[in-house]
Write a structure and sequence with these properties.
With 283 residues, this protein is an alpha+beta fold. The chain is 35% helix and 20% strand. It has nine helices and ten strands. A hairpin with a 2-residue loop joins strand 5 and strand 6. Helix 1 runs parallel beside helix 4, helix 3 crosses helix 4 and helix 6 crosses helix 7. This is ImmA/IrrE family metallo-endopeptidase. It comes from Pseudotabrizicola sediminis. It holds the Pfam family Peptidase_M78.
Length: 283
């Protein structure tokens, strides 16, 4: 890709924006609509990052070196999980750089692990900062105008696969984006060897009773798909709600993508109780 036309990105217009999603939107207002994958490295270099290094790292996904007032910064990201994960790492570290309330570690740097790159909790300071950096990264790499067509579709893993290709992001990031922004009550679960690595759920999706390290239920389509030992994506099918949740919901649908080495991505889609009907029964 050639040089960008937005040569005058202004950090002053981004100052005092502490909400990560608002901050990402403010960056895109300066850039204008894009019809291609977001050039995250060029954006970082125009917003005060003076150097971006990409190399294979062990036990670390990204590092931001900067000072307390964020006069400039340098980013180092891991290439060991592929170029799309590295792009997310650059966006994540840029989030730390632009979110001025983020506090540097004792080493005078932000050092982010793979767990940090998946953080969504907001309670403790470290987890909150990592969750905000992730929210900014998603907002930067998946601008609203490019996300909207995917939100109009019914939830399907194929939407995440297409989003991955068109926006040059990882399948993991694409699935998380669908879960976070889709109007339907959906969730995504990642497993390896039949054991849950982690899960994310939309705001309206019921609580998932199985936790990291638990084996998937034999009632789930994920268990059946793994038993067939073939890669590929299943259709969306109804499964017993008890396969994933103890919530009393009318229907639960599940779709699974079986990848290499026992890795799976599971998409869950719930039908929620009709609140109005429930209220009528209570009256």
């Amino acid at each position: 890709m050639g040089g960008l036309v937005f040569l005058d990105l202004d950090r002053l217009d981004l100052a005092d924006i502490h909400d990560p999603q608002r901050l990402a939107k403010a960056v895109h207002r300066q850039i204008g609509p894009l019809c291609c994958a977001v050039p995250v490295d060029e954006i970082a270099l125009k917003l005060g990052i003076t150097e971006i290094r990409q190399e294979e790292l062990d036990g670390c996904e990204g590092v931001l070196l900067t000072d307390r007032v964020r006069s400039a910064g340098k980013i180092l990201v891991n290439t060991g999980r592929g170029p799309q994960a590295a792009r997310f790492g650059i966006a994540h570290e840029l989030g730390h750089f632009l979110l001025e309330r983020h506090v540097l570690g004792l080493s005078g740097a932000f050092t982010c692990s793979l767990t940090d790159m998946r953080e969504t909790r907001t309670a403790r300071q470290h987890e909150r900062q990592e969750g905000e950096a992730n929210a900014f990264a998603i907002g930067l790499l998946v601008p609203d105008n490019q996300l909207l067509p995917f939100l109009k579709e019914q939830p399907e893993i194929s939407s995440a696969v297409t989003m991955r290709s068109s926006l040059n992001i990882s399948l993991e990031a694409a699935a998380r984006c669908l879960v976070d922004r889709h109007a339907e009550p959906i969730a995504a679960v990642w497993t390896k060897g039949g054991k849950i690595r982690y899960a994310v759920r939309g705001k309206s999706f019921p609580w998932i009773t199985r936790s990291t390290g638990d084996r998937v239920s034999s009632l789930s389509q994920t268990s059946r798909a793994l038993g067939m030992a073939k890669s590929g994506t299943t259709t969306m099918r109804e499964v017993p709600a008890a396969a994933w949740t103890s919530a009393d919901i009318p229907e639960l649908f599940e779709q699974v993508r079986v990848g290499k080495d026992g890795h799976t991505l599971t998409l869950l889609w719930a039908t929620l109780p009709d609140r109005g009907a429930q209220d009528d029964e209570e009256d």
